[in-house]
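Researcher: I'd like a structural prediction for the single chain below. Treat it as a standalone chain; there are no partners to consider.
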Amino acid sequence: MKKILILLLLVLVLLALGTGAVTYRYPHVIAIAEEGFPAKIWPAKGIYVDVVGKPQQWPHSFKADAALDNEFGQKLQQLNLDNETDALVAYHKGQLKYAYFRPGFDEKTQFNSYSMAKSLIGYLVLKAFDDGEIDGLDSPIGTYLLDLKDEGLKNQTIERFLTMRSGLQIEKKGPPKPLAKDAKRGPDKDASNPFTLLAKMHIEGLPGIVDQLKMPKEPSSEYHYQNVNTALLGLMLTRIYKQPLNVLLSTKIWKPAGASHAHWRTYTNEGSVTPYCCLFATVEDWAKIAYFLSKNGMTMDQTNKTEEPLDLVPFIQSSSVIKYMMPERFKKEDLREGIYGLHVRHDILDRPGEAIQGVFPYFVGHGGQLVYLLPEHDLVIVRFGRKHTLLHSTVYYLWRIIQSEKSAS
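Model: Treating it as a single chain, here is the predicted structure.
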């Protein structure tokens, strides 16, 4: 009996020493364990700040309608069930045309954006270019982040960070994954490993890892998805505007688009928001944001007005900045595999026999969170779910439903 007690005591001592060694080397692990992997819906564990929007009157005219009397509505319904869609909405010409919510979710549910937040950072960088706050996307990022120590890192252009081609690697070793496979597997698949520099950054912010940010001697210009690219761009924006990112997003995009209050996660030990993740907002908020960005400053409310022409202030005014957003600069054969643009992904609708065709940009998150922007068709689509869904079929089915509704009326 005495030997068993001694053995148990020895095991406990070894466990304590092992735990102590781990927490000494990886002190952020405790905070990660307490918070857990970012939740899918609000409320969520962690520290959050508000993105101030416009007060909303609830309930709205949301009426979940799966259009089951329509052949394509039935197909879409099955797609929703197969891929565990939690919410799917489509707005055409500023009007809600389709709404599906899994039981337990509705128009008030605030969903986690995961990596869709990255796309908003991309638009804010373009806005900074348009505002004259940065000289151009070919400017070295070190021009605006003087405290970066690695010369190779400082000399990389802003555009290289926007396109995930900076050459900086902190999360993965080995060759980068092709974009098509990366999109199918989910862009943040490796984000749950608590012993990576990404995990350390997720708790401590960039100050916790900045000394370890070193460009390889021969950096690759191939696409390589890294959250640190967005983190550096976010820090650059806060330095340029001398404002926190949540305030900057609110004033430049969120409130002008008419979106309601949202919540954005902050680094646990540092206080600023995590630019690459974890913005909680409703499907309607994302639809308003998508419409505002795709229509360069027009809101869905303004679209519905039939009075005199509106005196709109464009979100982006400079034509030299707008050219960076144009899909015409991509080749169709490349688009079929998917392209990562300036923190926004691009694809193409080209299925024979379908009425809706052309290039479209979209935002995507870890679990199949999607925002589609189709300005030529006055269409925005927002989707949240637990699995990735068929990117193109979702649009084809919804467009058929919308067109059949027009024919019926």
